[in-house]
Design brief:
Radius of gyration: 18 Å
Shape: globular
Strand order of the largest sheet: 4-1-5-10-9-6-7-8
Number of domains: 1
Strand content: 15-25%
Length: 315
């Protein structure tokens, strides 16, 4: 059952900066979900600094309310959520850092705790998927991103933030037939970029398609494709237009507003989420915390989706 959730009774700016002032804990027996920082940025190939993303997201989270107006519920009346701290990654060593992240997450899965990762660059998602698949088998992927991240290699490197989902398919961590990529638009080298994702089996919905056709039926279509099986939700903050999220590594114009983001995320209610992350927040390029605030809201909306299933008695 949900336990005490708030450490600070005074103003939001007081207290230790855990996510939403949630208790920082390593005891998992009473937890339903855990926030986990994944401060790795060695997989980037343009701007770096995403290692400071988890800190920025936690800082921006303190004004969030536990009540979801969209779903008409108090998340913390239904869920017990902890802040599980950060995985102790090794800067410059991506394979070892991925092993550290996977090892950090496996006890959460063993305790049936849903991990919600704070990146970090998008390469961390490969490690998260390894831990998720070890528990659940191949998962469906719901990806919000301006890039498909399915390159085979980047400057000779196989493990970067441009390749996690190519590697994940090769390793059998994802079921592409239950997976959807939303918002692709970012500086492709050619049509081959998006064609690779389609050939791997992903449903691809480009930003141009979504802007032209509208967002109305998109969440329902993604839910239907995902089915009832386990799903990993990965949100690259560059899904948002740089006007709404300037603090990121590879920004791409023509994206989405935070209002559109909320419409899409809230429309996923009912999906069987077993893990999620929000990645690529780069505080050095942020303005007035607007990128970090958007990322914190993504985390809250993810928790709300978990609470919806708990309220319905299916999680």
């Amino acid at each position: 059952m949900p336990g005490p959730q708030r450490l600070v009774d005074g103003p939001a700016f007081c207290g230790v900066r855990t996510f939403m002032h949630l208790p920082q804990a390593t005891e998992l027996s009473d937890a339903d979900a855990a926030i986990v920082g994944l401060p790795l940025d060695s997989g980037t190939y343009y701007r770096t600094g995403q290692r400071f993303g988890p800190e920025a997201i936690r800082n921006a989270s303190v004004l969030l309310s536990a009540y979801s107006t969209a779903h008409r519920l108090d998340v913390f009346e239904l869920l017990s959520v902890i802040d599980g701290g950060d995985a102790a990654v090794l800067p410059g060593d991506i394979p070892m850092s991925h092993r550290v992240i996977e090892a950090h997450l496996r006890p959460l899965y063993a305790a049936d705790v849903v991990p919600i990762g704070l990146g970090g660059d998008h390469s961390v998602t490969l490690a998260e998927l390894r831990a998720a698949a070890a528990k659940h088998g191949p998962v469906g992927l719901l990806l919000f991103d301006s890039h498909p991240d399915t390159w085979d290699e980047c400057f000779g490197q196989k493990y970067t933030h441009a390749s996690p989902f190519r590697r994940a398919v090769e390793e059998g961590l994802i079921d592409p037939t239950r997976s959807t990529m939303l918002g692709l638009r970012g500086a492709p080298d050619g049509s081959e970029d998006w064609d690779i994702a389609r050939r791997l089996g992903f449903e691809v919905r480009t930003a141009a398609q979504l802007h032209e056709q509208g967002l109305g039926g998109v969440p329902a279509q993604a839910r239907a494709r995902a089915g009832t099986g386990p799903v990993f939700l990965s949100f690259d903050i560059d899904f948002l237009d740089p006007a709404f999220a300037p603090g990121t590594g590879t920004p791409a114009v023509g994206g989405f507003s935070t209002a559109q983001m909320l419409c899409l995320l809230r429309g996923l209610a009912g999906v069987n989420l077993v893990a999620a992350d929000v990645v690529e927040v780069l505080p050095a390029y942020d303005v007035a915390q607007i990128t970090a605030m958007a990322a914190a809201q993504v985390v809250f909306e993810t928790m709300a989706l978990l609470a919806v299933r708990r309220k319905a008695g299916v999680a």
